[in-house]
Amino acid sequence: MPNSNRKLGLLPGSVIYTGENTNNNITITVIYYSKSFYKKDIFSSEEEIYIDLEFEGNIWINIDGINDIEIVKKIGQIFQIDSLSLEDIVNPEQRVKIDDRDSYILIILKMLQLEVITKEIQYEQLSLIIKDNVLITFQETPYDMFESARNRLENPTTKLASKDVSYLAYILIDIIVDNYFLILDEVENEVDLIENQLIESADKDDLENILALKQNILVLKRFISPVRELISKLQTRSMLVYFHEDMKYYLGDLNDHGIIVFDTIDMLNNRATELIQLYHSMISNTMNEVMKILAIISTIFMPLSFIVGLYGMNFKYMPELEWHYGYFLTLVLMGILVVGMLIYFKKKKWF
User: Fold this and answer.
1) Are strands 134-139 and 58-64 parallel, antiparallel or unpaired?
2) What is the pLDDT of residues 130-157, one digit of tens each?
3) Would you give the distance in Å from CA 102 to the centre of its chain?
4) What average pLDDT does range 254-263 have in this prediction?
5) pLDDT grade, residue 81 (50/70/90)?
6) Is 296 exposed, middle or buried (0-12, 13-18, 19+ CB in 10 A)?
7) Amino acid 8: pLDDT
8) Are strands 105-114 and 58-64 parallel, antiparallel or unpaired?
9) Which of 11, 43, 64, 152 is geometrically suited to a Cys-Cys bond with 142, CB 3.0 to 4.6 A?
10) How many Å from the N-terminal Cα to the C-terminal Cα in the chain?
11) Contact (CB, 8 A) for 25 and 116
12) What is the gyration radius of the CA atoms in the chain, in angstroms?
């Protein structure tokens, strides 16, 4: 987990990496693209970074590794990104947000991934800066889900290659939101599976699974819920400087996706709470069934205990004790009582 204690006592705007990633293989990818041009340059942290700021088309700069503070500061100096924004970029625990900094906007989102085996939610922060014809993205590790966008940029006939960087930023955000749908579908399948298991037979392991599922949903809600507000801000008039009027339709569609994601995560959270209630109900029903069986057994043994107790008394004159067939008749009588009581309970549908 990120260590926020590293920032204690420091002034606001102190660019300190608070994560735990120790990967030194920092990669800076610079993509130049337009309707008729495509070029990609890749630099490592040991190389001198050259960015052609005179390029008249669009530039996408992606930095894999925010743990290298010097690289982040250098990018900040080149594009005049203030220290408060850089501080947010290198803090992996920064909340989802959008900031208008007059000459650029900063958007911070979470890329989510569901581990297939452990069912745990893995997340990574993605920071986007839109300034003029430049899109800068910062991520902590090389993992992302944007390979399809990169491939589309290589083809000059695609809409993505022909539009400006605000459209590329929209595409990246849309990919992240679409991935939320995939994760929520997996979580919903997990909810259905646990629900079916509870209905069949509930045990202690089911409660542990429900609590783990509830924790995952809370993590999802923490990261996904603010996205709805963020997307709504993209549609405000102040954002027209960065997202042009012709993108109104796309942002509206993205807003619809954000609403659906928000409603879905809210529904899953309610279902997880209902699973806990269902678990307790099933356990209570199981206990009731056990108590019913024990009560039936106790009821059956009551007359048998009476008979045994009656003939176990030490009275001198008990004629049945001297009878040759008394023992066998008592056993038959006890057997008839047991069978009769079971038939009666069955007719009453008590078991």
Assistant:
1) parallel
2) 999 999 999 988 878 899 999 999 888 8
3) 34
4) 91
5) very high
6) middle
7) 54
8) unpaired
9) 64
10) 53
11) no
12) 34
Q: Helix-strand-coil percent breakdown of the chain, rounded to 5?
A: 55, 15, 30
List the one residue out of 281, 272, 288 whose CA is nearest residue 350: 288
SS3 for 313?
coil
DSSP letters, 113-168, are EE-TTT-PEEEEEEEEEEETTEEEEEESSS--S-HHHHHHHH-TTSHHHHS-HHHH
Q: Which residues pair with 30 in a beta bridge?
A: 41, 61
- SS3 of residue 41 by DSSP: strand
Identify which of 1, 17, 118, 15 has the alpha carbon closest to the alpha carbon of residue 65. Answer: 17
Of 62 and 325, the one with more pLDDT: 62
DSSP 94: P
On whether the CB atoms of residues 265 and 217 are closer than 8 A, the answer is yes
The least confident of 204-213, 311-320, 328-337 is: 311-320
Residue at 30: amino acid letter: V
Cα distances from 213 to residues 119, 188, 193, 247, in angstroms, run 8, 10, 11, 37
Sign of CA dihedral 6, 92, 226, 161: positive
Residue 11 is encoded by which pair of tokens? Answer: 């002034």
The residue type at 331: L
3-class secondary-structure state, position 248: helix
Distance CA 33, CA 258 (A): 29
User: Quick one: tokens of 50?
Assistant: 């050259």
Q: Is 241 exposed, middle or buried (0-12, 13-18, 19+ CB in 10 A)?
A: middle
Task: Kindly state the DSSP code that residue 49 receives in the 8-state scheme.
Answer: P
Average pLDDT of the segment spanning 3-17: 64
Alpha-carbon distances, residue 142 vs 21, 59, 124, 146, 147 (angstroms) = 11, 19, 10, 11, 11
